[in-house]
Amino acid sequence: MDIEKQLARCTTSFDDTLHELLSDPETANYYLETSLEDYKKDKNIEILMQSVRNVIEA
Question: What's the whole-model pTM score?
Answer without folding.
Answer: 0.78
